[in-house]
Design a protein that fits this description.
Shape: globular
Radius of gyration: 18 Å
Structural class: mainly alpha
Number of domains: 2
Oligomer: single chain
Amino acid sequence: MLEWLLEPWPWYVSGPLIGLTVPILLLLTGRNLGISSSLRHIGAACLPNTKLPYLSKNYNWRAHTRTIVFVVGVLIGGFIGNFLLSAEPGNFVPGFYASPLGVVGLFVGGIMIGFGTRYAGGCTSGHTIMGISALNLGSLIATVFFFVGGLISTWFILPLFIP
């Protein structure tokens, strides 16, 4: 009976379910969907005496605990979905990234993504799901370039590093 839960869901089921999170979140909380801002909240909570203006004492991270709980829920949901609700659990990180070059690639990529997220005013989820739903032109432009960057990385840059 629950076999359908263990199989990958088709796009026409999962896509609308993700899309429905936008109006539900806005109606219930009046807030936008986004994960990238949680790094600031977690940083401010973990480093309360820092001199960094971005994480200063005047910043009230407690007002954003909802976002931190959301991120923890995403991590727990990913774990449950992969290991408990999957007929064949997948690896979170492909084997290539266990090598020294792979670790450097993950580190450099993480810094670039963090910088890009801050520079773009949000992450791919925030812009693509929330921003486009709100008819934000900047989010549409950002999403187009997310895809362009992904295509360039996949077809031209990644083959330089993976034989």
